[in-house]
Design a protein that fits this description.
CATH class of the largest domain in chain A: Mainly Beta
Order of helices and strands of chain A: HHEEEEEEEEHHHEHHEEHH
Largest interface: A-B, 46 and 46 residues
Oligomer: homodimer
Distance between the termini of chain A: 56 Å
Structural class of chain A: alpha+beta
CATH architecture of the largest domain in chain A: Sandwich
Number of strands of chain A: 11
Helix content of chain A: 40-55%
Number of domains of chain A: 2
Strand content of chain A: 15-25%
CATH topology of the largest domain in chain A: Jelly Rolls
DNA sequence: CGTCCCGTTGACGGCGCTCAAAACAGGTGG
DNA sequence: CCACCTGTTTTGAGCGCCGTCAACGGGACG
């Protein structure tokens, strides 16, 4: 485990392999032959929409954004990925359906689809773990559908801000914000200007503080209320 | 296989089990003990958002819609399911994150999560098949995000109409339309009236014909063009 | 100091939502 | 068969949210 070349117990593949009792050590040794570690700089494109997909990645550190650009138009962010998640595991089509770009410096493990399928067939524990990851991604996607489908601009931004809080973190703390206004707009299905306006409004009403590249929640309960549906009665009533 | 009580080779569970060589017959016999067949009438609620989830279903026939209603507001349809897909396989939370409702008469196979996990651990082929289903659902969800995020009303409706065409079907044919205008609106993040207006406009321009409960495509190429991004220059130019 | 990029702010117009009523279909009972 | 009622679909009028266009400010960097 410690002498495994990819050196990370938290990786879905390694982690699961290590704990899958019946094969054990032999499997660990086998898999490290097919895993490659890769690094990407912030802003670097990992793979591009429409290119043939042969490999999949397991994110170790950093964040990725998945984007799509239908025909000639603005980009839409389909989702954000953090450590532990899979990306590029496409089986139905032979090309990636979205572009993956590093938002921060990224470390990831690479494996070809062919090898991955073999690993899954031989290691039920890994398969279970992969199923769990897909479930999580699907839940995230459904949350996005909810937001895009019914929430007005202010509620979308509020929901987005709440989603930045790391699990089990103290509020009233300052969190890093790696997305630009434009990227937030692309994530929320809004225009850059609208996002900026909502941020300004929230700052004016001391709901948040937003220095460069960071954000700080000043009034969690009200943000949470705004994030719920825009309930008819103008949100201004709540903000002022 | 033919004497299996659930009697369907096309079910992910049975199908996969039958073809998983190394266990074979024994597994088939084992699984039919934990599978239950259920029927639901059109309009019947299969399970409701927020209720504890212990079972998952494999759709045999019919269609389901998955809906959510955040706080007090309108419903949002998260997705539609057809035969072969899984529903209710939630592992992270103990409650269903959406409501499942039958759109047509439905037949499904039921299995508890606990049993399902055991089946997955013992049958890699089933696990692979399940992963594939989740991938497909994720792709569908991402298509919805794309549509909701950037497309104007007309393009959303056009995309929806195109999505009704069964795989490998002849166009110029008449397809069943099980969703009401309100449901289409909830799926596309629009109002009922807007959907109705777009349908009317399309009918006026002989793009479609829409008798009760059915729809017929009259001009596939133009519908396809409208479904692409609304590219700035008014769509009226295309329609007239 | 000039340039570039990002964020902010203002003015304006249009898409699509809201409210309301009419047209329509389907089912039920007289 | 027709009157009646209920729920769906259609159509109209009005307006508000938000997207577009444009100009400005500020920090990073050469």
């Amino acid at each position: 485990m410690l002498n495994c070349r990819c050196q990370h117990g938290q990786c879905v593949l390694c982690g699961a392999l290590v704990t899958s009792g019946d094969h054990g050590k032999a499997q660990v040794c086998e898999i490290r032959g097919v895993l490659n570690r890769r690094r990407y700089a912030a802003g670097e494109v990992v793979f591009r929409e429409g290119t043939p997909c042969t490999q999949l990645l397991v994110l170790r550190t950093g964040q990725l954004k998945l984007t799509t650009m239908p025909l000639t138009g603005r980009e839409q962010i389909l989702g954000l990925l953090v450590a532990g998640q899979l990306v590029g595991f496409e089986t139905s089509d032979a090309t990636y359906p979205y572009t993956a770009t590093a938002l921060t410096p990224v470390e990831a493990c690479c494996i070809t689809h062919k090898e991955m399928l073999r690993v899954l067939e031989e290691n039920p524990a890994v398969a279970l773990s992969v199923i769990q990851r897909f479930r999580d991604e699907l839940v995230q996607a459904q949350i996005m559908i909810r937001n895009l489908g019914i929430k007005p601009a202010h509620a979308r931004v509020a929901s987005f801000i709440l989603s930045l809080i790391p699990a089990g973190a103290n509020h009233e703390e300052t969190f890093p914000l790696v997305l630009s206004r434009l990227e937030i707009a692309e994530l929320l299905g809004l225009s850059e200007e609208t996002v900026s306006r909502v941020f300004a409004e929230m700052r004016r009403n001391s709901l948040i503080d937003a220095p460069h590249g960071e954000i700080r929640l000043l009034d969690m309960p009200r943000i949470r209320r705004i994030a719920g549906i825009g309930n008819g009665e103008s949100w201004h009533g709540d903000l002022l």
